Amino acid sequence: MAVSSSASKQTVNPFLRSWAWKREHRPDKDRFDRPYIHKMVVDGCQHTLSIIQAPFSIRGFASTVWDSAIVLSKYLERWPLLVNGKRCIELGAGCGLPGITAAYLGAAHVLLTDLSENLPLLNQNVLKHNLVNKVSVAKLEWGQQADLHNIQTYDVILAADIMYDASLTAALLTTVRCIALASTRFFLAYGRNRQAEETFFEQTKQWFSVEKIDAEKLDDIYQCVDVDVFVMQKRRDL
């Protein structure tokens, strides 16, 4: 008797399924030097993204595709209406995978932001995927009014693996409050690098409602126990 694909998914150990795509155990060549190959389906057509990564610099700054970025991107792919026709911004974009995914899913415009050192890499990934008419790149240091001055409000905010430094939480939330409308949804994913988690959610509750996205709503394959995804919106009672 033939076994359906959905049934076979349920019988495979979830850890083994995630281990097939997870990145953090991969050698440095895969994580920093070679492009990350990401396959996605849009309107029944398969697309292959080739995301350029960057090794560590003298400042210790590196841009790699983290597991959380993959989980978030695959979540958007499963629910494309979350970004279709929307103005989107990615914070701490790194390689820009979630933002580039949003562009492929029909976002009206995407702004990829990061520190100035990382902008050349983001521009390379935008050019490589012929997205210059839909995706822009800009410097954004959280909490800096000079950077925020030229940035608009957005319908969707995306961020992956930015929960690494509790000292940055206040600046991050200042930025989010400035660029978010009452209707804006902020999708945040992070993995084991979550040192700021407690501080972040303690400070967040003053301004935002927070909902953890259930595993059932994530992609069947691209999810794992050490990556959480949340959606936040400005509190309506303020």
**Total count of strands:** 9
pLDDT under 50 segments (min length 5)? 1-9
Order of strands across the main sheet: 5-4-3-6-7-9-8
* pLDDT averaged over residues: 90
Number of domains: 1
Q: What is the structural class?
A: alpha/beta
Q: Characterize the overall form.
A: globular
Q: Which CATH architecture would you pick?
A: 3-Layer(aba) Sandwich
Q: Give the C-alpha Rg.
A: 17 Å
Proportion of helical residues: 25-40%
So, the CATH homologous superfamily? Vaccinia Virus protein VP39
Helix and strand element order: HHHEEHEHEHEHEHEHEE
**Count of helix runs:** 9
Q: What does this 3D model show about the protein?
A:
This protein has 238 residues and is an alpha/beta fold. The chain has a single domain, classed as Vaccinia Virus protein VP39 (Rossmann fold, 3-Layer(aba) Sandwich). It is 30% helix and 25% strand. A 7-stranded mixed sheet has the order 5-4-3-6-7-9-8. Strands 1-2 form a two-stranded antiparallel sheet. Helix 5 links the parallel strand 3 and strand 4 (109-114). The N and C termini lie far apart (58 Å). The model is unreliable at 1-9 (pLDDT under 50). InterPro entries: Methyltransf_16 (IPR019410), SAM-dependent_MTases_sf (IPR029063). It holds the Pfam family Methyltransf_16.
